[in-house]
Amino acid sequence: MYVYLYDAFLRGKKYDSTIKAMETRLTDFGIAGKIIRLQNFTNADAIVEEEMKRGAATIVIVGNDATFGHVLSRAATREIIFGFLPVGKGNDIAPMLGIPLGEEAADTLSRRRTVMLDVGWFNNRYFVNQLHIPPSRIEIEYDEKFTVSVPEGKIELVVCNLQPFVWRDARKKEYRVHPQDGKLEAFLRPVIRKGIFRETREEPSVFPFEEMTVKSKTPFLVEADGKESKEIKIKIKLAKKRIKMIVGKERRF
């Protein structure tokens, strides 16, 4: 049985035609199912758990990157197959998974090509895609061996799992990671000079790690799979379990 978790923004009229076309395809493929509409305060993990008890075999997230993060930040390690139907703007995760936007995503879902993906964990939340801390006055310790900090300076930290790390200097650069290699990669970029209009940062240093602690004397912003929070201290590591996800043949890993 398929259960579809719709983001609240899909109630907008501009999405009506896309949703109707998508639902028609799902019916044609014989994989239409129960629809549950999410709200910002919805406990996605509780919903997934309850639907599993009722016989759900596949949970399909319908929306954008923020929807993806809202559901999987809590339910990522549930032992069930997850699918994703990307709709609208703010969809950077879908191309990594090889899933086209809009109604054509139903074709990918119907083929049920699945892979096991690593999952990151921090402070009792999960992330599948990427964790980002914008330049902040933070101290970083990884694998209980090495500490990185910049006295009176800031560091940008990006921890990648599915989404590659992309940065711009004189030209656009990209470092791809593999979400099935059983490790996380951290990219550190100290701010070396602050100009009038922008900050200048060093080339990123790459640190594969098993466990990392990030702390600061003042709250810093953490962005993970579309969800933001302010923290004083976080611990980041690879989750013990992996996620089973439906992907397309054009996935980028």
Average pLDDT level: 92
Calculate the terminal CA-CA distance, rounded to whole Å: 28 Å
Low-confidence stretches: none
Shape: elongated
Structural class: alpha+beta
Strand content: 35-45%
Number of strands: 19
Structure description:
There is one protein chain. By secondary structure, the protein is of the alpha+beta class. The chain folds into 2 domains: 111 residues, Rossmann fold (3-Layer(aba) Sandwich); 117 residues, Sandwich (Tumour Suppressor Smad4), CATH 2.60.200.40. The chain is 19% helix and 43% strand. Strands 6, 7, 8, 9, 10, 11, 14, 15, 16, 17 and 18 form an 11-stranded antiparallel sheet that branches. Strands 2-1-3-4-19-5 form a 6-stranded mixed sheet, sandwiched between helices. Strands 12-13 form a two-stranded antiparallel ribbon.
Name a few traits of the molecule:
single chain, 253 residues, alpha+beta, Tumour Suppressor Smad4, 6-stranded mixed sheet, 5 helices, 19 strands, 43% strand, elongated
Indicate the topology.
Layout: E1 2-6, H1 16-29, E2 34-37, H2 44-53, E3 58-63, H3 65-75, E4 81-86, H4 93-97, H5 105-111, E5 114-117, E6 120-122, E7 125-127, E8 130-136, E9 139-142, E10 146-148, E11 155-160, E12 165-168, E13 172-175, E14 184-194, E15 199-201, E16 205-209, E17 211-224, E18 227-238, E19 243-246
Parallel strand pairs: 1-2, 1-3, 3-4, 4-19
Antiparallel strand pairs: 5-19, 6-7, 6-18, 8-11, 8-17, 9-10, 9-17, 11-14, 12-13, 14-15, 14-16, 17-18
Helix pairs in contact: 1-5, 2-3
Summarize the structure in short.
This protein has 253 residues and is of the alpha+beta class.
